[in-house]
Specification:
This protein has 21 helices and 24 strands. By secondary structure, the chain is α+β, with helices and mostly antiparallel strands. It starts with 9 loop residues before the first helix and ends in a 6-residue tail after the last strand.
Length: about 625
Amino acid sequence: MFKEVDFADKNFHKIVDLVSANIYWKDLNGRYLGCNQSGLDQFGLKSAQEIIGKTDYEAFSISEHEASRFIENDKLALKHGSFEGEEYGTIKGELVTYLTKKIPFFNDEGEIAGIIGSSLDITHQKKLLELERKKFEEQLKILQILDTVNVSIYWKDRTGQKYLGCNQFMVNMFGLKNRDEIVGKTVYDLLSDEDAKKIAMGDQLVLTNGHFEGEETITLPSGDTKTYYSIKNQLTDSEGRIIGIVGNSIDVTAQKEVEDLVEKEHQQFRSIVNQVVHDIISPLSALRMIIPRLSDVPEKQRITLKQATAQIEDIANDLLRQYKADDVSDAQNVTPDVLFTFMELSAILSEKRLEFSALPVVFNHNIASKAYFAFIQANRKDWLRMLSNLINNAVDALEGKPGTVDIGLEVEDDKVVMVVSDTGKGMSSIVRDKILQGVSVTEGKPNGHGIGMTQVIDTVRKNKGTLAIDSVPGAGTRMIVTFQQTIQPEWAATKLVLHSDQTVLILDDDQFIHGAWDTHFAAVLAQNPNMKLFHFTEGERLLEFLMKLNATEMSKVYLLSDYELINQKLNGLDIIEQKQISQAMLVTSHYANGNVVARATKLNTLILPKRLASKVPILIHDVGYL
């Protein structure tokens, strides 16, 4: 990650000063912290001191309207993690177009401290695109202009293969004597077969689709590997017939190097986040197992422990949401539209606690025992948005005053019922009926547009659910949403079924979870004296233990294993596969990782979210072994 101290590093400045694009960095208020030499040169500044501490509007002679567009793009980068696109500004009375990318950078505490941006002046390129559709004869008249541009410009025949001409920059790029030397040649005459094939594919796309735009990486005859941002279009005559293609390629190698450096830092930071969350989840699971059994601890203190556990969990969930690893995909990719209702609700509730932490609102949740393992079938994106809208409306109903928002989840017959209630202002029967009819209602919201509840109604109807509203003006509102319960995915564990003489092995690299499992198993072990429980923190030690067992002893083994074993060669699924353990359950926070789910399914291994380890019922069956 980029830290503020990095910008003072002399080597950093040497690197960015080599880049032809404008590189700059700002704080969270949009004030410049510095820029590279290219930026100083373009704006006619002598040193970075002339812009440090200033906004775009204060630093440059641009209108407030232009400055506001830069600010909006800065905000998009901070909100979404990046912004990429064109920006426009006026320099010395002329409109300039930039190809811009902006991303956040972080301070030592991992907090967003500002943005770093790269803006490449592509004004000439944009202007040249207007000339590309002119006839070849007209283009030849402007060769002198083209030769002044540090961009490769070229045109080919109607087959898209043979070059008909280029500008002087491209002549120099390929080490040719003059522009006539390229006429009649193909990319296979200039580049390696591998690189030529990639360029030829882009050229053919122009002939079939009319346009190509994207990056092309090639190795030049000089041996230098360069990345170009290329734009290619068809050339047509006055009757619209294709007579060739024209293209231009901008060297963006330096810009890509900066982007790669940024991505590498982000990858490292994501790894740190994953490690932190891993270290948090296991102790939380342990606390959730142990707290309900602390009968000697006063109820008030137990409540405080529960609240502290929930707050830490909210932070962990938020970290996962913001810095989700690239290889993590939703479980719905394996089982489309089947939602693990409690887990989805828990994630949204964590997000809302943090979002509204500045308001005097208390969030409570009441989950029935059956509801922890209930699944519904619904469009995930719409369902999460529906839940978010319901909670937002409940908070709005409090009007900034102290109050509570309660979320309940239970199973009634074959239905999953979710209740979102508040102690807010309530609503009249007229407003309630309008909402149920799908009419947009903005009562009490000066800036509202009614879309939130309309989306709720739409989602309920599309997914064959029902919505009921129980509200008393001045006393609060209850939104009751009901969906059909569906069969759980084949990978999902909803109970732990054991035999009375089972040998249970627990593998987790976090010591906290082992004591919690002991607590969860305490009553079971007391009633089943022939059952054995063994703990392991290292996969290798577990394998050594299994090697000593005979076939009969192995048949009694049931493994409860974490998936990710930090700094170990094996993960939980590796061990299950290697020893062909037929009775196993993966207890992990990676239940939503599509790759993990697919592999566990292949191994006939159930998955239990670690969040629910304290809730899974343990059942004893004396039916013998196969």
